[in-house]
Design the sequence.
């Protein structure tokens, strides 16, 4: 088997998801779209931290960025799941954005958590 085998395992796929800079940026975009109008201060704390995590990832600190993304995605999921939502509201535009952000949070916690736990700190070892 070659090193670029298209049949990666689920854990390897999740880990490579956690090592990219796009997932925290996408989550920050969804959170901003959901809480900017009307402005809600508490949820709007999360986008700057997630964008900083994406910046760290692009700067070469993939393991640390994955840890920050996993932690803050989990915190946002806990905060967002506290709000109740009527059944009729779940299928509107805001409900779909909320569902997408919670799904992305779940994948980020799993993938970035794996990348953080099994990651190597190349910059610190040099």
Sequence:
């Amino acid at each position: 088997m070659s090193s670029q085998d298209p049949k990666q395992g689920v854990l390897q796929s999740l880990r490579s998801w956690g090592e990219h800079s796009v997932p925290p940026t996408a989550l920050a975009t969804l959170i901003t779209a959901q809480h900017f109008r009307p402005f809600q201060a508490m949820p709007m704390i999360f986008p700057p931290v997630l964008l900083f995590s994406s910046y760290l990832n692009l700067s070469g600190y993939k393991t640390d960025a994955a840890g920050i993304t996993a932690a803050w995605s989990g915190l946002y999921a806990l905060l967002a799941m506290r709000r109740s939502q009527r059944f009729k509201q779940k299928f509107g535009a805001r409900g779909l954005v909320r569902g997408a952000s919670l799904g992305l949070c779940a994948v980020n916690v799993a993938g970035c958590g794996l990348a953080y736990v099994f990651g190597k700190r190349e910059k610190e070892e040099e």
Q: What stands out?
A: Helices lie at 10-18, 22-35, 46-58, 62-82, 93-117, 122-125. The chain has one domain: 10-120. DSSP finds six helices and no strands in the chain. Residues 10-120 form one domain.
